[in-house]
Amino acid sequence: MTVQNKVVVITGASSGIGEATAKLLAKNGAKVILGARRESRLAEIAASIRAAGGQVAYRATDVRRAADLQALVALAKTEFGGIDVLFNNAGIAPSSPISALHTKEWDDMIDINLKGVLNGIAAVMPDFTTQKHGQIITTSSVAGLKNYPGAGVYGATKFAVKNLMEVIRMESAAEGTNIRAVTLYPGAINTEVMGTISDQATLKGMAQLYDQVGIGPDAVANVVNFAIDQPEDVNVSEFTIYPTKQG
Ligand code: NDP
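^ thats the input. predicted complex w/ NDP below
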């Protein structure tokens, strides 16, 4: 079973990496279910996917709410009869030095980037365990592999993702449930992510970096497509996606 006809739930599908991935997978014959908070954006993206002949459904989703993830997965089942893949991609990156004490943003990152990922995992795990088939792809960051000043809390949420995916992979192997767990570590990808940074010094530095080296979100979408396209007994578990200009 390749990308074609797979049912793929995508969080953070209203822009950037999630939007690009939804469009690519739908073009390649997957049935995509889009979740994010901005429903009007989801409606526009769904319309463009349908206009191109793709199959799509969407639902306003806040990943901080476990019930929203459950409802998104339920939509996949009612619309398309099941779920094969969760792309756990929603996230925010309001980076800042720890000493600046943007504690409300710390909470938001933990709630969205970490708790939101866990809510997605919880929503699919019962079906994936029962059907002995499923794939969870989660967007970490190069800040989930290396330490970057300014990305202390953001990086903490993204390091956590690596641990979760790898443990799911190992537990699934032990339990014989065939769940494939994949972590993505993108570098500088030009999306709307900068809009979540309120710390002005951090924003200035990031904007310069992205201007100089950033690449488009299709680079990540291609990798997601590749991971889903592998044979069922192959788990390509980690991908780092750097722009060639990023050191
Ligand atoms: P965007 O800002 O373009 O996309 C972020 C997506 O997450 C949007 O669709 C947004 O939708 C959604 N989102 C944010 N908060 C919530 C929430 N509470 N509930 C549901 N959806 C939410 O940025 P990217 O595409 O770059 O970000 C996607 C992922 O990639 C993130 O996890 C980010 O950390 C990661 N990443 C990005 C990198 C980059 O350079 N761009 C580098 C490394 C990792 P909405 O606002 O409508 O809810």
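The pocket of NDP is lined by residues 11-18, 36-38, 41, 61-64, 89-93, 112, 139, 141, 186, 188-189, 191-193, 217 (CB under 6 Å).
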